[in-house]
Amino acid sequence: MIANPTRFWSKQAAMAKASGLGFSANFLVGRFIVFIRNTDLSQKIFSNVRPDAFHLIGHPFGKKLFGDHNLIYMFEPEHKNLRRRISPNFTHRALSTYLLIQQKVILRHLRKWVELADQHPVPLRLLCRDLNLETSQTVFAGPYLSPEARLRFNRDYNLFNVGLMSIPFDLPGFAFRRARFAVDRLVHSLSLCVAQSKERMRAGEDPCCLVDFWMQNTLEEGPEIMDLEVGGHLFDFLFAAQDASTSSLLWAVALLDSHPEVLRRVRAEVSALWSPESGEPISTEKLREMKYTEAVVREVLRYRPPATMVPHIAGEDFPLTDWYTVPKGTIVFPSTYESSFQGFPDPERFEPDRFLEERQEDRLYKRHFLAFGAGPHQCVGQRYAVNHLVIFVALFVSLLDFRRHRTDGCDEIAYVPTIVPKDDCTVLLSKRCGEFPSF
């Protein structure tokens, strides 16, 4: 699994399919694991997250790495109460505030990409990762992270990413230990942002980022929560947004390049609603009118769900079927990837029209669309995530011409730990518009 995760998980899926049972079993770093391919069984796991059934863990050794503060480790009523407190962060007003921030950050990075490319192919993975990291920092923590703090933050986040894919030896000198300490520093940095936000909201200032909306609501409703606790949750948001969005941006570029008619339709829809020469950002209202572009984004998420599996652990023996009980302590991997290719007509075909109103496959086959999970722990920020992907696609195809630098196996799946094209989506880029907009 460490040396070639793509091959390892493909074998688990093949065994689950060949068995006719919908799941397979193996051992991973000394732990018994069950890989779930069948959508109904995956739904059963997602809907039974509770102390006496399955515990969502996000990563086989995530609790030790992320800490106990993480939202995914909570159960009702604590979990339900926290989600209620988080909801003001994703209102229409809040999302509209974030949308302008997202566009400004994306524009800065697209300018850099064009300068960097200079008629040479460039791999986009690390560039997209940096774009998403700055977007998350700015949307979530706003003005409270100084340039120096951002540099330290970026270094620590890189240590965390390396630790995610490393053998989990929690010993001095090992990547996993460095990642664990990096998480502590990241949470501390974010908790300082929380303290500054509280002071600003107490002074009656308008919210300008996610933590402001959260602190404004907290100060109005009470009871006040500890800065370090909120900092931990902000890190959870950042982790959830960071790698998943990077994966989806890369696959969006790759799939638009390989489907020129889809690209043509996206460009036509965006240009009918917004022009770079307008000097104005894309408004929330215009974004909502980009129905086909959003359908493309949702098809990207179906076709290549970034987190292909969502690890859970059995808190107790759990009857998965009439004849099989998952033993307590087993790590169970419901596969969102395998579910994406079940139920939908012609699932191996990349076809955004399936998500348009005429076909409504997003409703008819909703059980199989698990990119954002399901059940009580379904992603609370999915509207924000979709907005981010749609606005990136709209700006990218309007402002840049691009062509994939194709090599053998470039579209094969690689785990980093979310899935990306094997070649890191290497493309040739050039400016498409006369001038980049400035707002």
TrEMBL record:
It is an enzyme of class 1 (oxidoreductase). Gene3D superfamilies: Cytochrome P450. Keywords: Heme, Iron, Metal-binding, Monooxygenase, Oxidoreductase. Its cofactor is heme. GO terms for molecular function: C-22 sterol desaturase (NADPH) activity; heme binding; iron ion binding; monooxygenase activity. Pfam families: p450. Its EC number is 1.14.19.41. Coiled coil: none annotated. GO terms for biological process: sterol metabolic process. PANTHER family: C-22 STEROL DESATURASE ERG5, CYTOCHROME P450 26. This is sterol 22-desaturase. It comes from Vanilla planifolia (Vanilla).
